[in-house]
Amino acid sequence: MKTLVRDITPAIHFAKMQHTTHASAVAGNPIFRIIKYVLYDILQNRIVIGYTLFLLAVSMGLFALSDDPTKGLISLLNIVLIVAPLVSAIFATIHFYNASEFIELLAAQPIRRGVIVWSQFLGLVIALEIAVLAGIGIPVALYTPTATGLTLLLAAMGLTLVFVALALLASVVTRDKAKGIGVALLLWFYFALLYDALVLFILFTFADYPLEKATLVLAALNPIDLARVMVLLQMDISALMGYTGALFREWLGSSWGILTAVGILFLWAAVPMLLAVRVFRRKDL
Amino acid sequence: MLESIQLNKSFGKLKALDGLSVRMNAGQAISFIGPNGSGKTTFIKCLLGLVVPDSGDILLNGAHVLRGWDYRRHIGYMPQIGRYPDHMRVGQLFDMLKEIRRGTFQHLDDDLMRAFEIDKFAHKTMRTLSGGTRQKVSACLAFLFDPAVLILDEPTAGLDPLSSEILKEKVLAEKAKGKLILLTSHILSDLDELTTDVMYIMDGKMQFYEPIGRLKDQTGEDKLHRAIANLMKQHAAA
Q1: Confidence of residue B187 (pLDDT cuts 50, 70, 90)
Q2: Is A1 on the interface with B (CB under 8 A)?
Q3: Full pLDDT tens readout for chain A, 285 residues
Q4: Is B178's Cβ below 8 Å from some Cβ in A?
Q5: Per the domain annotation, does A4 fall within a domain?
Q6: Contact yes or no for B171/B196 (Cβ under 8 A)
Q7: Counted domains in chain A
């Protein structure tokens, strides 16, 4: 009898504790409790500030040097399409590995694994998006506050989101830091450089066939291309892009088309991120 | 209270846990002993959910907790090597954990924080702390939320003799309150005073799990380290 009582006491204690959970669930999502510490950790690293200043200097420089803001915008587009994905991917990967202590500490606390990855993701996205908003948004607002300028800003922000998600997936899948950074770099290399070469190759090989629709699909399969097309179509130079350009125009010219393009870009962030959460749930720390 | 059933875990070819089944009850202080790489830390990490076992189950007060998360409110964990964000200040670290565990504990136990005078270096960043000071922080965090289960992985390693005594006193006090305490250490003389039971793990398998008194009777030794050495010899001979 005595042992029975001893066995039951902790269970009662346990049941009492379970009861208090409901009250605490209302007290706020744990992601918001953690995120400020994640942001603090990220901002201790001066790279985000350096990145902001770099974007600011490049944007200001390009606009100041070209007499026509549209020309400045095109030069800026080309740089942003390379730099924003690269910095987002590399910085997110390095940060995730450097935060391994932090992640381990959190994983031993009564919170879900998902909360840990999401708070890292949101922290990174908030920090990098602020950098983009300040570094590109301010010069664009000063020199060319047009729909095209706004589209460029949104494209840069979209790419940042996509590449942070891709980078987190890469870091969750690989255990080794060097390998993780390698995978993130490879993803960037593929989407920023290799993919276009492959598309050109396909277009030349099958030049005899009508490829307009295929080109549309090919563009949607690469977030960087998608962003580029979105911005270019806002400018009045799509006439130079031939029949394919006209088709793009027809697709993306309508508000419905823009919405789908944004939707696809969003999917490019959501799918890798959901995969990363799935993998992380089962990962050994 | 806490029970593992047929836990298996492999890292590649290495079998870290091989069908480990243990029942642990409140009021026990169990020492995990075994050679390096025998699976002690893997077992602890499985209990915490840091490592996901390939098969098997873990029960806390009869509830399945494998892949759960809320049950961790009942566990205080002091890792072998406490690794913390470099830039975080000691005070911030405590604030953060209090915030994360808000609503999941009934009262704060800051006995150790006072005994170790954590206030004095609350403004320092974790990076600048010495190994021993970091251990103190880890110990304080493990006890802070007054959990029903305490898991202490090499608690006294790196602590100076005085701090080590303070920590041992605290462990004894918590044991007396009827908590379940799990310990690993290679310093068997430290464990001698603290434990009620000894569990010997080798190659991921449990070799024996006995109350400390019976171990000493069996081997005719009155010191834990002699009794263990004696038993290890017997096992090696068998």
Answers
A1: confident
A2: no
A3: 444 444 444 444 444 444 444 444 434 678 888 898 889 888 888 899 999 999 999 999 999 998 888 888 989 999 999 999 999 999 999 999 988 888 988 999 999 999 999 999 999 999 999 999 999 999 999 998 888 899 899 999 999 999 999 999 999 999 889 999 999 999 999 999 899 888 888 888 888 888 777 888 888 889 998 888 888 877 766 555 666 666 677 776 677 777 888 899 999 999 999 999 999 998 988
A4: yes
A5: no
A6: no
A7: 1
What integer pLDDT is reported at residue A235 of this predicted model? 76
Q: Which of A5, A37, A46 to mutate to test the interface with B (most CBs of B within 10 A)?
A: A37
Cβ pair A100:B83 closer than 8 A: yes
CA distance B229 to chain A (A): 33
Alpha helical stretches, state H, chain A: 2-26, 30-44, 47-65, 69-98, 100-107, 113-132, 138-143, 147-173, 177-189, 195-205, 212-220, 223-232, 242-253, 255-281
B12 touches chain A (CB under 8 A): no
- Euclidean distance between CA atoms B149 and B177, whole angstroms: 11
| Partners of B24 in the β-ladder | B2
Answer whether residue A204 is part of any domain. Answer: yes
pLDDT digits 0-9 by tens, B157-183: 889 999 999 999 999 999 999 999 999
The CATH number of the structural domain formed by B2-237 is: 3.40.50.300
Neighbours of B119 (CB within 10 A): 12
Distance CA B182, CA B150 (A): 6
Of B52, B67, B96, the CB nearest to A37: B96
Per-domain boundaries in chain B: 2-237
Angstrom distances, CA of residue A117 to CA of A102, A103, A281, B15: 11, 8, 9, 29
Contact assessment for residue A188 and residue A85, using Cβ atoms and an 8 Å cutoff: yes
Query: How far A168 CA sits from the closest chain B CA (Å)?
Result: 19
- Any domain includes A66: yes
| Minimum-distance CB partner of B77 among A108, A282, A283 | A108
The pLDDT of residue A129:
96
Would you say residue A240 lies in a domain? yes
Tell me which of A5, A6, A14, A33 to substitute to probe the interface with B (most B C-beta atoms closer than 10 Å).
A14
Kindly report, residue by residue over B29-48, the tens digit of the pLDDT: 999 988 888 889 899 999 99
Give the nearest chain B residue to A43 (CA atoms): B87
Query: What is the model's pLDDT at position A236?
Result: 66
Strand ranges (E), B115-175: 149-153
Report yes or no: B1 at the A interface, CB cutoff 8 Å.
yes
Interface membership of A17 toward B (CB under 8 Å): yes
Task: Return all residues near B22 (Cβ < 8 A) that are at least 6 apart.
Answer: B3, B4, B199, B206, B209
